TrEMBL record:
Biological source species: Scleroderma citrinum Foug A
Protein name: Carbamoyl phosphate synthase arginine-specific small chain
Pathway(s) annotated for this protein in UniProt: Amino-acid biosynthesis; L-arginine biosynthesis; carbamoyl phosphate from bicarbonate: step 1/1
The keyword Magnesium is assigned to this record: no
EC number, as in UniProt: 6.3.5.5
The protein's assembly and partners: Heterodimer composed of 2 chains; the small (or glutamine) chain promotes the hydrolysis of glutamine to ammonia, which is used by the large (or ammonia) chain to synthesize carbamoyl phosphate.
TM region positions: none
CDD domains with a match to the protein in the record: GATase1_CPSase
Family matches, as Gene3D superfamilies: 3.40.50.880, Carbamoyl-phosphate synthase small subunit, N-terminal domain
Amino acid sequence: MISRIIRSPILSRSFATHAGSNVALPAVLHLKTGQSFVGRSFGAPKSIFGETVFSTSITSYTESMTDPSYRGQILVFTTPLIGNYGVPLNKTPVDSKDVGVVLESQNIQCSAVVVADVAEKFSHHSAVESIASWCHRSGIPGITGVDTRAITRLLRDQGTTLGRLAVGADASASSPTPGQYWDPTTENLVDQASTKTPYELNPTGDVKIAVLDFGAKANIFRSLVRRNAAVTVLPWNFDFNSVRDQYDGLFLSNGPGDPAHCTDAILKLRKTLQEWDKPVFGICMGHQIIGMAAGLDAYRMTFGNRGHNQPVLALASSGSIRAGRVYVTSQNHQYALKLSDPFPEGWEPFFINCNDSSVEGIKSTTKSGKKVWGVQFHPESAGGPLDTIEVSYSSFVMLTGNSW
Ligand SMILES: NC(=O)CC[C@H](N)C(=O)O
């Protein structure tokens, strides 16, 4: 395959991007479709394969990078300047009411980051280190000095594309052959991201919620604990039906990769939905699992929706959510539920994306007497706008029965 080498004018600037080093190593981002972008390395001096995706978020690089749904992905930020507010200490003091981290999980979850201009200096009252030093000690490579607009236009036109970030000596080697690219979606990434053993948060809370952990973001736990839920976190394929009598509600979390790997959870949830009448709520992967258990199919979108400015239209009113209102939402997904006509009996579409008409939410119809909701977006944000606070409020109140 003939590869196109693309150089950015930003490359002419030179500064130290490796912790403890004054020399920025060369780096090249190769796409399986044949294009190569030449830049400089920061973070860990190592080469990796992954699925190249872009996010349009302007802030919250720390939250995005620790979101387990980015596992296996090379994350391209469309915002040019990344790193200017540094990275906070990612620990909260341990007591039963906190979830242990300030960010969305303990470690960086994406495989690599791609930025136009990584910030050499950072400034924020809670920052303890630079993005370059964080990536370096976390073993995550980054590339800077590349034209992220050009990369994003390619990803938008040709769709999410497999990639390789080649660093140091690897940067001068020729681009990989198509067969050499690793496709993370062939693996069950949920099984890698999920907890292996059950654990509890806020055990003295007044409403008992079980969480099936597909790779949950910490802000979901915070949202539940803040409403004084006693949260039991279970592995993604845990047999919830054997313990369901102990709980007041079930939550299904976000998670990485293709929902088709989660058939085990889908079949178990189908039984739960048939036999149990307590509230069930799911976000992102959790929403896809609920939809598939209800009989909908999921498909792979061309380039997915990642960013904090995705407009969704409410099609039904429920709680404080009003049909006809548009909410600006935080999103990170590649798959979506197919809009079928008719919708499976007992279900209705809840939200729809204003840009691409993809299904953004489903709910059980009140006729069935059950309260089951799934939303494709992240109402709990982190990162993202608080515009969805109303949706977040109604969704978590639906599940827990508790307000703030
Ligand atoms: N954030 C998520 O839960 C994403 C769900 C799924 N991995 C997708 O890409 O569509």
